[in-house]
Write a structure and sequence with these properties.
The chain contains 13 helices and 2 strands. It has helices spanning about 1-5, 25-30, 35-65, 70-85, 85-95, 105-110, 130-155, 155-165, 170-180, 185-200, 200-205, 220-230, 235-265, and strands at about 10, 20. About 30% of the residues are buried.
């Protein structure tokens, strides 16, 4: 981490000993770098989608599996499978699924005579980030499902039984008792989802490599390309250091906000 900050003060391609000290020039360049700030916006959008879709679906699955008895173990294993798969393998598979010419999505739309809905899912700047975000959410939902299941496992069963005896419906039991009980777990899940989205790399790099036209570029992919494709080690280290500062700031704000919300509730 310290080395990254030190390298951010250099103009160096990472090869040989031709490094040149430039002070804060790289940071001044970063402040006006439209590609970097576009990547920051994409990271924030990915964080928003992660919290909006991953956590509610994971919570519903956790509650259903917690209440289920027969076959719940098999279902838990099936739901957890996406998280066990290699991100590289998933990226290749879904890249073919989204293929505009041979992919099954456009093929199915064509079979249903809905050709107007067919798109170049990864080649359209308006759809690329959303298309990859859907795969990211699908892969990571099982992690949060297990997290919520762990929280529900410590829920006092006698409390639920007492509420049912008093005439509480299942929806009332969930909204008034179980959900407040899971506040700490939900806070942790929100923090993990946001921080994970701010430093995400895998599927974006495999499926779109930040394209088209930077529509799905993230801070991590921009940093990787700056260092290993453009051989700008000094500037790439500046991007990495800025990424660390932004993720730390976002995590701190998230924890602060969620802690205050939890106290108020």
């Amino acid at each position: 981490l310290i080395s990254s900050f030190q390298l951010s003060l250099l103009d160096w391609n990472g090869l040989g000993s031709g490094e040149k000290y430039v002070g804060l020039d790289n940071w001044a360049r970063l402040a006006h770098d439209k590609l970097f700030w576009n990547a920051v916006r994409n990271n924030l959008a990915l964080a928003f989608f992660s919290v909006l879709f991953q956590l509610p679906v994971a919570l519903v699955l956790a509650v259903v599996l917690d209440e289920a008895s027969k076959g719940s173990r098999v279902l838990k294993i099936l739901y957890f499978l996406p998280l066990l798969m290699s991100s590289v393998a998933l990226g290749v598979v879904f890249k073919n699924i989204y293929d505009p010419n041979f992919g099954p999505i456009n093929g199915l739309l064509g079979a249903l005579h809905l050709d107007g809905l067919a798109h170049d899912w990864l080649g359209d700047p308006r759809l690329a980030l959303g298309s990859v975000s859907a795969v990211i959410c699908w892969q990571n939902i099982p992690f949060y499902m297990v997290l919520f299941l762990a929280g529900l496992s410590s829920f006092p069963r006698e409390l639920g039984e007492a509420a049912r005896l008093d005439g509480a419906s299942e929806s009332t039991l969930f909204w008034r008792i179980k959900l407040p009980f899971l506040q700490g777990t939900i806070r942790t899940a929100i923090t993990l989802a946001i921080v994970g989205s701010m430093r995400y790399f895998d599927l974006i790099f495999i499926m779109t490599d930040g394209g088209p036209e930077g529509a799905s570029e993230l801070m991590a992919t921009y940093m990787f390309r700056t260092v290993f494709s453009s051989f700008q080690l000094g500037y790439g280290s500046t991007v990495a250091s800025a990424m660390f500062l932004i993720v730390t700031l976002v995590a701190a704000v998230t924890l602060r906000f969620s802690r205050r919300y939890e106290t108020e509730v």
